């Protein structure tokens, strides 16, 4: 196949009216028709395998899963957050900087090989442009497994029975835990470790934290561990308002 089939033109589209930094641009890749057809075939094949390697917490880009499942689940999780009698709990909304160019590709390839993907296929997929969301949720699966492996992590009172730690929509994550110092420190550690492995970091300015069952003083102390501000419900998640009441 001629090398020019892979030729692409990258154009930067500003996200804001007067961009000042590279973070305020979005790269758009213009590919030729042959490249797009091949990439689409590979993307469809990858998508068909995701349900076998991605946990139930990821509600998008995976066949037979619905975005509404994540919304309804999160509504159930935050219901009752206005009650002072609730057991201590925390919902942490984290926005991951979705800059595909910063992903450490060697890390992605290693993860895909561990998941059972052929070595050549994983490296070829990393060079594509039509399936970053699929590759992104594969990387984020590592984040979930890292946190789940922490023996001292304390589950959210509604999540322990089903071993649920987070609900995800690509890079839009809601982490659920008990509201205590130990769990907050573990989340901070896992965020740092994951960042070193993948080069993906949380966007703290777009992240938020919601507490129930703790005093204002306790909430302030816990919030300071991660440096993420405290907000009160309702909050919009995937276009829907999550409230403390059904």
Automatic annotation (TrEMBL):
Coiled-coil intervals, chain numbering: none
Superkingdom of origin organism: Eukaryota
A Pfam family that the UniProt record links to this protein: RVT_1
Record CDD domains: RT_nLTR_like
Signal peptide: none
Ranges where the Reverse transcriptase domain occurs: 1-242
PANTHER family per record: REVERSE TRANSCRIPTASE DOMAIN-CONTAINING PROTEIN-RELATED (PTHR31635)
Protein name listed in UniProt: Reverse transcriptase domain-containing protein
Organism, scientific name: Lithospermum erythrorhizon (Purple gromwell)
């Amino acid at each position: 196949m001629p090398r020019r089939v892979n030729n692409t033109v990258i154009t930067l589209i500003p996200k804001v009216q007067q961009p000042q930094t590279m973070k305020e641009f979005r790269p758009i890749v213009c590919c030729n028709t042959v490249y797009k057809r091949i990439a689409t075939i590979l993307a469809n094949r990858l998508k068909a395998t995701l349900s076998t390697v991605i946990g139930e917490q990821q509600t998008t880009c995976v066949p037979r899963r619905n975005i509404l499942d994540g919304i309804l689940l999160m509504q159930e999780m935050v219901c009752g957050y206005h009650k002072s009698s609730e057991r201590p709990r925390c919902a942490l909304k984290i926005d991951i900087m979705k800059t595909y160019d910063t992903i450490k590709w060697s890390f992605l390839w290693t993860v895909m090989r561990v998941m059972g993907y052929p070595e050549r296929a994983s490296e070829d997929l990393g060079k594509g442009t039509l399936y970053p969301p699929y590759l992104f949720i594969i990387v984020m699966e590592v984040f979930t497994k890292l946190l789940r492996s922490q023996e001292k992590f304390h589950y959210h009172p509604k999540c322990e029975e089903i071993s649920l730690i987070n609900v995800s929509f690509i890079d839009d994550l809601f982490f659920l835990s008990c509201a205590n110092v130990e769990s907050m420190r573990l989340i901070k550690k896992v965020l740092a470790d994951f960042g070193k492995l993948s080069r993906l970091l949380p966007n703290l300015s777009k992240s938020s934290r919601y507490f129930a069952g703790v005093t204002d003083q306790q909430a302030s102390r816990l919030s300071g561990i991660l440096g993420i501000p405290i907000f009160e419900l309702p909050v919009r998640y995937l276009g829907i308002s999550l409230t403390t009441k059904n």
